[in-house]
Structures are given as structure tokens and as C-alpha cells.
């Protein structure tokens, strides 16, 4: 004998080959509980087992369930979708069609909430690194405006201090000597310039706090990548790839040029030289290497990153230190040969 199983937000329906209802397992009216039941397959697994114990040699479901064959649409699914409202009202799931629609709306919201809760943590790392990059742009704009504005009163101040943080700190704590070439400063003038400098200081502090937070998140979601390069550079790779899983599925050759898409398309379109590296150019050993060494180091790093990403995503093995040691040895060999 065969049994056909289908699921909807009103519950699970099981029929025989002729469409006779064998079982109807009604869901509770609570939209949150319904959302969880729709996202889970545990109830169906138990039903499949029970049906087989009762003599149904084959159970056919509309989606993948352990112990069942998949067939879409199946007999139960057709009946459930065709008579959903009648089944719901007849079995006291809802009083009328209006109440049924309200429950469906709340269930849809609940399903979205359940799925968002299951989003992988690498999405957090991506948002944090993108927030840091946004704030970096904002900080640079604030600094440029501050140089122009403060320069009206202290034209030589920006030349005295090249470090951005020290320049902002100098304004906030009156560390610059009065410049005779500048305009006269009154109390209101200095108050507003300092407010603007304080804004820049707060942005910088937030960036530092986010960087520490990013370190924690990356050690959680991609510890091998973080050990191999750094939390910041690793998060940039995740951001450009779209997710840890997408990065893990990429070949090493793609990881090597990730972030250099424009140069790659230019190479394909016009025959210009292909890029040797993308984002990973920010890795110190590549950035500081000679031109002849960069491509070789980039290839080795990309290979190690590919292995690290797969370990972080699929096996969760702790191989970061081992990969780091192997990478450093290979870099030393390359540099030794090019001396």
C-alpha cells in the first residue's frame, strides 16, 4: 500500500492512492509554532515511520523527507491545495475564511523571522567590515573639511601634524600655537570647530570598537582565514565573495583575483595584462614584495585561503596555524630564490 503526504500551514494531510484521507494532523493556531513546524521536518519523519509500521510499504511526499519518496504534485498535495479552506474550517483550524487569511499572514511573517534567525554569522562579519569601510570614508571627509575649516584660523596647523588622529586631538585640546596669518577666533568659532572635531573623534573611536568586534566575529565564523591573514582582510574577502560558503566554493585562481574584476574584464576584452591579485594585495607580504615575487606569493596565498575557507565552512578543522606556517615557509623560499 502507498500513502501520500503533503504539508501546508493548516497541517499535514495523508491520503491513500484513491485520495481517501488516512490522517490529518492539524497544526496549532499559534503562527510562531506553525512557522517552526513548516521549517522543520521532524513531525513528518515520525509520521513516515508510523505509516510504515502500519503497513504502508511506500510513503510519497512532495519534498525530501527521510524514508519517503519525492513526487510533486502528489495526491495528498492536490487535495490539500484544492480544499484547503474547507479542510481548515471543517476541522476547526479557523472559524471562517477571514480568520484563515489573518493566520496565513502572521505565519508568513513568522517564517521570514525563522529564516533570518538561521542566517549564517558570516553575514554579521560582512556588515561590520562594510560599516568600517563606510566610516573610513566618512572620517576622511570629516578630516578634509576640518583641515579647510581650521585652516582659516591656523593655516600652518595641518602642516605641523600629518597624523589624522593627532590633528583632531590637537584641535580638541588646543595644542596648536596661534598662527598670525589666520583669522581671529572667537569663542563661538572655536566651539563649533571643536564640535566638528569631536564628531570626527567619535567616528574614529567607533571604527576602533568595530574592528575589535570584527576580530571576535571572524574568529567565530572563519578562524582559519583569520589566522592566515587577518580579521579585516578576511572579512573583505567574505564581503566581495558574498558569503563564506561562496568563498569556499571558489577555486584558488578566482580567490587570487577577487576584487580585481575590472582589470580582469579589461584583460578579456582588450588583451591587456591579466591581474595577478585582487584584494589579497593588501596582505603585507604581497604588498611589500618585489614585482617578480608578488604573483607567486599571491598564488600560494590564494591556495591556502581556499583550503582555509573550506575548513571554516564545511569541516571546521583547526588548521589555521599549520597553513600559516606553510605559507611563511613558501614565501621565504621564493624570496631566497629571487635574491
Word description of this protein:
- It is a single chain.
- The chain is an alpha/beta fold and 339 residues long.
- It has three domains: 2-117, 2-Layer Sandwich (Nucleotidyltransferase, domain 5); 123-218, Orthogonal Bundle (Helix Hairpins); 222-337, Orthogonal Bundle (Serum Albumin, Chain A, Domain 1), CATH 1.10.246.90.
- It is built from 17 helices and five strands.
- A five-stranded mixed sheet has the order 3-2-1-4-5, with helices on both faces.
- Strand 1 (2-8) and strand 2 form a beta hairpin.
- The longest helix is centred in the middle third of the chain and has 35 residues, at 187-221.
- The protein is elongated.
- The model has no long low-confidence stretch (mean pLDDT 87).
Question: Could you give a quick summary of the protein structure above?
Answer:
The protein has helices at residues 31-39, 42-53, 75-82, 84-90, 97-117, 122-150, 157-160, 164-172, 187-221, 223-228, 231-241, 244-249, 252-257, 261-270, 284-287, 291-315, 320-337, and strands spanning 2-8, 11-15, 21-26, 58-61, 69-70.
Based on Cα principal axes, name the global outline: elongated
Q: What is the helix fraction of residues, given as a range?
A: 55-70%
Largest sheet: 5 strands, mixed
What structural class do helix, strand and pairing data support?
alpha/beta
Please state how the strands of the largest beta sheet are arranged side by side.
3-2-1-4-5
Give the count of structural domains. 3
Q: What order do the SSEs take from the amino end to the carboxyl end, as H and E?
A: EEEHHEEHHHHHHHHHHHHHHH
Q: Using DSSP, what is the number of strands?
A: 5
Average of the residue pLDDT scores: 87
Radius of gyration: 31 Å
> Helical element count?
17
Strand portion? 5-15%
CATH architecture level-2 label of the largest domain: 2-Layer Sandwich
